[in-house]
Amino acid sequence: MAECQDRTKELYALPLASSTEEGGRLDEQHNMLKLHLGSLFPCPDAVAQVMAGGEEQTKSVLDLGSGSGVWCLDVANQFPQAQVVGIDITPNLRQTMPPNCKFEIWNINQGLAPFYGQFDIVHLRFIQGIVDHHAMTVEAVKCLKPGGLVIFLRAGEYVTEDRTTVTPAASSRMPDQSWYQRLWCLLECGSTQRGIPTEEYDHDYQQGFWDYDGIDTRKCGAAFITIPMGTWVATSDPSENTRLRSIGDFWVKNLLRVSKVLAHVMVTSGRSEKEVESLRANLEKEHHEARIRLSMVIRAIWGHARGLGDTKDQNQDPAQGGNVTLPVIASEPGEYRVKTIFDSKAAWTKFNTDLASTMTPDTKGLRTIPGFDPMEE
Ligand SMILES: C[S@@+](CC[C@H](N)C(=O)[O-])C[C@H]1O[C@@H](n2cnc3c(N)ncnc32)[C@H](O)[C@@H]1O
Predict the structure, then answer these.
(1) Residue 131 gets which letter from DSSP?
(2) Is residue 355 within 8 Å of residue 166, measured between CB atoms?
(3) What is the C-alpha separation between 185 and 347, in angstroms, rounded?
(4) Cβ of 14 less than 6 Å from ligand 1
(5) Nearest atom (ligand 1) to Cα of 67
(6) Is the CB of residue 115 less than 8 Å from the CB of residue 41?
(7) Tens-digit pLDDT profile for residues 24-47
(8) Which of 180, 182, 287, 309 has its CA at a distance of 20 to 30 angstroms from the CA of residue 359?
(9) pLDDT-derived band at 323, boundaries 50, 70, 90
(10) Do residues 66 and 110 lie in contact, with contact meaning Cβ atoms separated by under 8 Å?
């Protein structure tokens, strides 16, 4: 397949995964996420259901924006009977691959017509570079076989230690607040300015798969996953502390690395070189002081395509219309809650609305208004 002809490579802000350094970073990030979740998937039960019976019938998996290809490689090893296909705008240069895994160059912004109706799982994780997120999601659902499973993951804002409040971003009014959060805001704002509508991405993730044509509303889910930034976690289990601290330590260093390669996103959206430099110095300071205990958010959403013979009439969200009960979200002292699962749209959207309402006006301004509250010192 031909290399992409449009502006996708320009729009995609990170270095291409085919570079040795970025490929290595993505591999490490994947391994740390796998360690955090204890799985390659945020919804292992739903995966087990669709992958059952793979001995008699070949299963197939599509990874959208496969990057270094490490997720595909692990999935191909875990399910030797399945065929795994990774697609990306950049070629995959991995030397040794299992025979049931292959990569193709494909720009998702062209749609996914060659892949329609063929897959038991369609997976997408941490992908920017999509011009129309909603249209792409509709395309991804079309790639499923009846009963197949679509799974998306996206990294988001930072939350407080108890996971229920958005950590305020550092601003000229509140310079002692989080510079990690300020970085996230400037990147979101910069990406939107560059043609990647991050607010639309957020909206789609906060709605989940419940309302897509072809999806069985009864079998959708979402997960609120958090990763502690740094080594502050103290649970009652020493081995869990070791695990979470190694993950937290990796993630801070990963963020500091990413802040270097994404400096251009902030500059092209109106921030001065001096401000970007000062931001980076403050990120290092926040890391060394370890004063603010916060976690990075990952939202995962999934849904099953309707099976053969299912009708639209069966699509009813069990919680729609009634009182909404939220699952337990907050971590209690002495524990760290990695993941909370939601099985109703009403609960998931209420939770996201409640969380967004805790965002300070400065944090909102930094995310949405180019050049808002410059801080050069
Ligand atoms: C941050 S990397 C994540 C890679 C992988 N999903 C993972 O989680 O390790 C995002 C990947 O999406 C790819 N990508 C971005 N826009 C794309 C598009 N329009 N079509 C295909 N791939 C795209 C990039 O080339 C990059 O490899």
Answers:
(1) S
(2) yes
(3) 26
(4) yes
(5) 27
(6) no
(7) 999 999 999 999 999 999 999 999
(8) 287
(9) confident
(10) no
Instruction: Say if ligand 1 is within 6 A of residue 344 CB.
Output: no
Based on the number of CB atoms within 10 Å of its own CB, is 234 exposed (0-12), middle (13-18) or buried (19 or more)?
A: middle
- CB of 129 closer than 6 angstroms to any ligand 1 atom: yes
Q: Is the CB of 160 under 6 A from ligand 1?
A: no
- Would you state the structure tokens that stand for residue 4, as one six-digit string? 């992409």
Ligand 1: which of 85, 127, 136 to mutate, judged by most atoms within 8 Å of the beta carbon?
Answer: 127
Q: How confident is the model at residue 1 (pLDDT cuts 50, 70, 90)?
A: very low
Give, for ligand 1, the residue of 31, 88, 133 to mutate: max count of ligand atoms closer than 8 Å to Cβ.
Answer: 88
pLDDT value of position 35:
97
Q: Which residue has the higher pLDDT, 280 or 9?
A: 280
SS3 126: coil
pLDDT of residue 53: 79
What pLDDT shows up at residue 338? 97
For residues 240 and 223, what is the distance between their CA atoms, to the nearest angstrom?
Answer: 21
Q: What is the rounded distance in angstroms from the CA atom of residue 298 to the CA atom of residue 226? A: 6
- 8-368: CATH topology: Rossmann fold (3.40.50)
**Which residue shows structure tokens 């997976």?**
123
Q: How far apart are CA 276 and CA 190, in angstroms?
A: 12
Q: Enter the tokens of residue 21.
A: 């350094």
